[in-house]
């Protein structure tokens, strides 16, 4: 495993071990905050392989994990 991939996998594993599907989160999108819940575990975006993403309820698409805060 490449050095950068190891760090990305650690980010995914750390999030997923701490926050199960259904965790309440705030998603920062532009200048708006959306209060929602996760609908997936964190995963590697296949189109942007250096981006860790997650799916949330009520909004389509996946979102960068760095825009999501567990509450």
Tell me what the structure shows.
With 71 residues, this protein is of the alpha+beta class. The chain has one domain (3-70): SH3 type barrels (Roll), CATH 2.30.30. The protein is 23% helix and 34% strand. It contains 1 helix and 6 strands. It has a 3-stranded antiparallel β-sheet with strand order 2-1-6, with no helix packed on it. Strands 3-4-5 form a 3-stranded antiparallel β-sheet. A hairpin with a 2-residue loop joins strand 1 (24-29) and strand 2. The termini are far apart. 10% of the residues are buried.
Put the structure in a nutshell.
With 71 residues, this protein is an alpha+beta fold.
Strand content: 25-35%
Q: What helical percentage do the residues reach? A: 10-25%
Low-confidence stretches: none
User: Based on CA inertia axes, which overall geometry fits?
Assistant: globular
Q: Class by helix and strand content?
A: alpha+beta
One letter per element, helices H and strands E, the order comes to HEEEEEE
Number of strands: 6
Lateral arrangement of strands in the main beta sheet? 2-1-6
Average predicted confidence as pLDDT: 92
What would you say the CATH architecture is? Roll
Largest sheet: 3 strands, antiparallel
How many domains, as an integer? 1
CATH T-level fold name: SH3 type barrels
Output the keywords:
1 helix, 6 strands, SH3 type barrels, 71 residues, 34% strand, globular, three-stranded antiparallel beta sheet, alpha+beta
What topology emerges from the helices and strands here?
Layout: H1 3-18, E1 24-29, E2 32-37, E3 43-44, E4 52-55, E5 62-64, E6 68-70
Antiparallel strand pairs: 1-2, 1-6, 3-4, 4-5
């Amino acid at each position: 495993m490449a050095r950068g991939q190891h760090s990305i996998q650690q980010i995914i594993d750390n999030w997923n071990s701490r926050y199960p599907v259904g965790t309440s989160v705030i998603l920062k999108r532009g200048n708006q905050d959306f209060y929602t819940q996760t609908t997936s575990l964190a995963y590697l975006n296949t189109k942007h392989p250096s981006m860790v993403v997650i799916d949330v309820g009520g909004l389509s698409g996946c979102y960068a994990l760095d825009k999501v805060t567990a509450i």
